[in-house]
Amino acid sequence: MMLHENEIPVDEAVVRSLLRIQRPDWASLPLSPAGAGTDNTMYRLGEELLVRLPRTADKARSLTKERTWLPRLGPLLTCRTPEPVYAGTPAPEFPLPWSVYRWIDGTEVDANAVQDWAAFGTELATFVHELHHIDLMGASRADGLSWYRGGSLRDCEEDFSAYFADCRTTTDDGLDVEALEQLWRAAVRLPEPSSPHVWLHGDLRPANLLAAKGRLHAVIDFGGLSVGFPAAEHAPVWDLPDPARQAYWNALNLDDLTWGQARAWAIAVGIAGISYYRNIWPAFVTECRTRLETILADAATR
């Protein structure tokens, strides 16, 4: 499934060719699709490895970022995180950098994988607390670590306003876009963040969390790794059930200002997802819509 303009097509034959040329010792291992996200296509290689190939040239930059920083950040975190083991180089079959990581066993987070959502919310909060308190090691947003979600809502106002306008004219399935935009604009008017910059994962949606034995086991896909303000980091908790969200909030002792900004980021990313992927990725659009409906229901009770 192609999601972006200028996307580089890839299949098992392409991956086999890359391995034969660059890692012939792995070329005969079993290879099978292992899913795809907005940025990468993935293949499981043997029992212990995962191949990730960026969809477009701009997505490839995240692989370099992961190779640089995950070996430094991973050992300081309780949860497992991706471990890069090989940096693939561009080739005629695939003209972008690509990477191989250690395979991490686990189950995507959903109602079948997690029974105690309050405990899960606390565990996710522990991961976020750990990450946000790791020393920046001299890194700053000027070092290729300036993803928009670590910045100010006001800096993104023009882009998100366009997404809201698009959804107002094209979304006819009962989603209250006007109410969502009001919540978002109220947060844009809040005081600008004044907290110090911290390390941010950037995209803690359930698809990037793995559970084992009902508990948070691993956090994957650090393509959105950045340095910035922490509010946007909390946005994906609206993808989790209310007990997880409440436990997360309590564990981190978030104030109302941060919570309001986090909710605005959750709205903005959801609206942008619906607008961008409406005609090409229905499953992701449904995920975004569910998040936005949860926000509206939650706002009605507060």
UniProtKB/TrEMBL annotation:
It comes from the Bacteria. Coiled coil: none annotated. CDD domains: APH_ChoK_like_1 (cd05155). Signal peptide: none annotated. Residues 32-264 form the Aminoglycoside phosphotransferase domain. This is Phosphotransferase.
